Amino acid sequence: MSDVADWTSEEGITDEEKIYYYRKAGQIGHDVLNSVRDMVKPGVPIIQICETAEKMIIDRGADGFGFPTNVSINNIAAHYSSPFGDESVIPEAGSIKLDIGVHVNGYIADTAVTIIFSPELKELKIASEEGFKAGMEIIQAGTLPSVVGKRIEETITGYGYRPIRELSGHKLGRYELHGDKRLPNISSPYDPVESALEVGEAYALETFASSGTGSIHEVAGAKYIYMLLPRRIPLRNPVSRKIYSTTYKNYKSLPFAERWLSSYDGFNRARVRFALRELLNGGGILAYPPLADEKGSFVAQYEHTFIITENDGTIITTQPPFDFEMPDSLQEKPDAVDTEE
Predict the structure, then answer these.
(1) What's this model's pTM, rounded to 2 decimal places?
(2) Tens digit of pLDDT for each residue in 273-321?
(3) Identified catalytic residue from 17, 31, 129, 206
(4) 18-47 residue pLDDT tens
(5) Domains and CATH numbers, the chain
(6) Catalytic residue chosen out of the listed positions 54, 110, 130, 201
(7) For every residue of the chain, which 3-state class applies, written as one string?
(8) Active-site annotation holds for 110
């Protein structure tokens, strides 16, 4: 897969254009999240929520998805996106995490909120939100990720809950959901070579509060989200090769849903699963199983995307105000994205 570097390259893209793409993706992510959250009610099929969010993302002018829409329930912290024929519905009680991913020209917005139906979980939801605010308050160029993690952990534990230690915020890049830096939910040991946040970098800051152990495990037998890896592998089956090329063309190095592939001609469920299994066995893709804390526990999540700029400081791209304009350089290009609703 020799042209992966072409996807992530920012050659020819100015800083002003990059900020615009991040902000446009953020505006779409905000609008979709706040529209779709009203659908999250007991008895509503999860697949309906996922598909509605993904349709809205495209209808509102995005170039694609940052990742499949996640609807993770109760002790499931992340990575549940409906598989083929999903019959799961929103429960009568509990905590539901709605996590939306958008990209515009490869620049990603990642934003999430928790909806609760149980009054006793109100403080859990608040803990995740306040953990985010505490971390965000100190974020600027030069901030160390470990300091952010310490603030988040202190805030969440102050509410009597545990942050999830294995999950963290993450640096974003062009067509890159998880970059080379992370923003932990917990305190971390002193590292003399720890890299500070820098101007020009974008991150998703996501905070998780749990009533359980604060440690997650993969849900066995459940794989619904995948991502191509930057390597070519030999595929014997011609249908598998076609599925691979379709995925490569449409989703590049971003995560995709198994169910998305069923929308292409000639791809039925059995063929898609065979191809994905062949790719997994050959090391051509990575699977993202749902991640869960202990049974009977509840997890809340809160997340926004931000970019650190030279002139305007730290901008949360997935929150208002959306008072940005398309750069003149993009207005001159025929494929420029229109900011007007």
Answers:
(1) 0.94
(2) 999 999 999 899 999 999 999 999 999 999 999 999 999 999 999 999 9
(3) 206
(4) 999 999 999 999 999 999 999 999 999 999
(5) 12-221+295-331 (3.90.230.10), 225-287 (1.10.10.10)
(6) 110
(7) CCCHHHHHCCCCCCHHHHHHHHHHHHHHHHHHHHHHHHHCCCCCEHHHHHHHHHHHHHHCCCCECCCCCEEEECCEEECCCCCCCCCCECCCCCEEEEEEEEEECCEEEEEEEEEECCHHHHHHHHHHHHHHHHHHHCCCCCCCHHHHHHHHHHHHHHCCCEECCCCEEEEEECCECCCCCEEECCCCCCCCCCCCCCCCCEEEEEEEEECCCCCCEECCCCCCEEEECCCCCCCCCHHHHHHHHHHHHHHCCCCEEHHHHHHCCCCCHHHHHHHHHHHHHHCCEEECCCEECCCCCCEEEEEEEEEECCCCCEEECCCCCCCCCCCHHHHCCCCCCCCCC
(8) yes
